[in-house]
Design goal:
α4 runs parallel beside α6 and α4 packs across α8. The protein starts with a strand and ends with a helix. The chain is built from nine helices and seven strands; from the N terminus they run βαββαβαβαβααβααα. With 281 residues, the chain is of the alpha/beta class. The radius of gyration is 18 Å and the shape is globular.
Amino acid sequence: MAQHWVVIPAYNEAATIRDVALRVTRECKHVIVVDDGSTDGTAEALVGVPVAVLRNPTNCGKAASLWCGFQLALAAGASGVVTLDGDGQHAPEDIPRLLAEAIRHPDHMIIGARRRDQRRAVFCRYIANRVADFWISWAAGYSFEDSQSGFRVYPASLLRRVEINHGKVRSFVFESELLIEATRSGHRSLAVPIDALFRPGARPSYFRPVLDILRITRMVGWKLISRGMYPIGLYRALFGQTTSPSQVAPARRVQPAPLSGGTKNPVEEHGEALRQRVKCS
C-alpha cells in the first residue's frame, strides 16, 4: 500500500496552522510541519497536535522548507508527498481526492487546480498566475493549469532527484522549476479541481506578483534559450490541453501503510543534518 506523507511549510501562521494541521491529520497519518523561523508562535500553536515539527532557526524561504520536508518524508519511507499551505487557503478535506489519483497514477504529479475560484483572488495576482502558467507551460512543453498552486502530490521517484539551489531558497521559483524539470524527465501531471478558500481578514500572500513573476520569467528564459526557444513547447502552451481525470474520484480516505521498523519522528533523526545543508542564515 502506498505511504504518503504531508508536508506543510509555515511562516508566521499561528492564526491558522493548528486548525489546518488537525484537519490534515484526519486525512493522513504522517504529517510534517516546517516552521520556517516564525516569530508569532507558529510551532507553539502545534503543541498536542500529532505532527512532526521541524523548526528552522531563521527564515530560510519556502523552497528550503519544502526541500527539508521532502527529505524527511523520503527518509521515513514515503512513496509520495502531499504539499499544502498553512494559511488555510487549501481544504485538507481535498487530500483524499488528490491521493486517489496519485495512487491510480503513481508516476504523475497531481496538482490541485483552483479553476473555479482564481478570479476571486486579487486581480493582479490572478493575472500574474496566468502569466506564470504560460511561461512554465512553454518551457515544459506541457500545458499547466494553475502552475502556482501549492496543493500538490509529488511521487517519491521525482523527489529523490530534487536538490536545493541556495540562490533560490527565498523565492517561488523552486516550485515552478520543479514542474518544468519533472515534465522534462518524463513525469506527467494531472489537474484535480479544488476550491481555493479566500478568508476575510487573511494575511497578505507572500507571493509578490511583480518580483516573483520576473524571477520565474528569468528562470524560464534561460531554459528556453538553452533549447533554442523550444517552438514545440510554445505550440503546446498555446494549444495544448491539461490532463485531468475523466472522472475525479469521490472523496474517500486513503490510509497509508504503517512505517516499517516503527514510527520514529523523522525530525528527531534527520532534522539537524538538514538544517546544516540548507544554509539560509
